[in-house]
Amino acid sequence: MSGLVGTYLRDRRQLLRPADVNLRLYPGRRRVAGLRREEVAELAGISPEYYVRLEQGRGHQPSAQVLGALGRALQLGPDARAYLRRLARLDAGETPADQPPTCARDRSLTALVDVLTFLPAVVVDRNQDVVAANGMAARICDPALAVGANAAVEAFSRRDDARWERGAAAALAALRFHADPRGRRFAEVVDELSDVGGARFAELWARHEARRLTPGPVVLGTGQERWELRLQPLDVPACPGATLLLLSAPPGTREAHELGRMAAAERRADLTADTDLATDPARLPVGT
């Protein structure tokens, strides 16, 4: 084992207090910030010696039953437990399914968002890099929706909005959940986040949250160009770790009206392009 599981167990253990897991406090000063190793072992029903070896990266590959017991002991949610299981597979030598090739070179993702002419749509890879965006996303003119941007880094550039931290925390949790913690690009993104986010990034990152993006409100743009939209994330099975992000607006809102106007403009542009191809044979691909 290379220690990914052990590091995660230690970090999560230090976030819990005895009262969080209904453990009795005994007289005397505690010398640890969170739970003791033997307390986690007791809660998980494993020996303290085995738990110590797991944290130190010296134990054999933990079984699914042991990982499940540790997840319950540390009060991990469903996504965090799935993340713990993936760390165990990485420790065992599993190669991430998306390397190589990377999602950035997958043309099918561009084709996927281009057919979605009724809503803004982007695809982010496992490192939260935007690898595809459709025309409606471009019309919103937000840096976070541009191909090549990183959604997590962009989230930390929105401190003028009172709700920025919720979006930043969600982006960080998704980055941790999907990314390969051994990857070069992952390390680059974390370094950039540290530069941009400073102490607040360090505090949020230290929570060790790992979860998928969930549907919810999102604010894009600034000033008169602000868009209050709803995010709907969907997994992209063809590219493990990638997420399709669809943006919509409640009926009757200014944003819904603007999205409808933009969708109509996209359809007119498509019809114009189809008409040009039909009337000008020189525009047709060679061989047709």
UniProtKB/TrEMBL annotation:
Pfam families reported in the protein's UniProt record: HTH_31 (PF13560), MLTR_LBD (PF17765)
Start and end residues of each HTH cro/C1-type domain: 30-81
A GO term, aspect molecular function: DNA binding
SMART domains named among the record's database cross-references: HTH_XRE (SM00530)
Family matches, as SUPFAM superfamilies: lambda repressor-like DNA-binding domains
PANTHER family linked: BLL4672 PROTEIN (PTHR35010:SF2), BLL4672 PROTEIN-RELATED (PTHR35010)
Protein name per its UniProtKB record: HTH cro/C1-type domain-containing protein
Lineage: Bacteria, Bacillati, Actinomycetota, Actinomycetes, Micrococcales
